[in-house]
Write a structure and sequence with these properties.
Cytidine Deaminase, domain 2, 4 helices
Length: about 130
């Protein structure tokens, strides 16, 4: 069941991988996330000549989810044309944790066909959190 969903998300991310804007690193990344409502949101990495302004694919997808009124990612797929699957960076881990600290993370390389599946709790056991009433 979850395997089927992960495969679907990998396909959805692969579809938009050519839209990745990565003229500086040459590493293209796309993300597709499934929410608790059954919706899928996509995003690609968007680099900038001012490198610090670069936005990762995962955060683009999460921001897309929030923009459309959804709030809980269940599975986050990250697809790249790099040789190895790429894990989310620290900033993306924190941003995903804001909405679901236990999200499943699936990382796939279109080049090596390697798939790594883990959980955000493994990648970021103690996210920064402000207590909310
Ligand atoms: Zn990132």
């Amino acid at each position: 069941m979850q395997q089927d969903k992960i495969q679907e998300l990998i396909r959805k991310a692969e579809e938009i991988l050519p839209n990745s804007y990565a003229p500086y690193s040459g590493i293209h990344v796309a993300s597709a996330i499934l929410t608790d409502k059954g919706n899928i949101y996509q995003g690609v990495n968007i680099e900038n000549a001012s490198l610090g302004l670069t936005m990762c694919a995962e955060r683009t997808a999460i921001f897309n989810m929030v923009t459309h009124g959804d709030r809980k990612p269940i599975i986050v797929a990250i697809v790249t044309d790099y040789e190895e699957p790429i894990p989310p960076c620290g900033a993306c881990r924190q941003v995903i944790a804001e909405f679901n600290p236990e999200a499943t993370i699936a990382m796939y390389s279109t080049k090596s066909k390697k798939l790594v599946i883990t959980n955000l709790k493994q990648l970021l056991p103690t996210p920064f959190k402000i207590k909310q009433e």
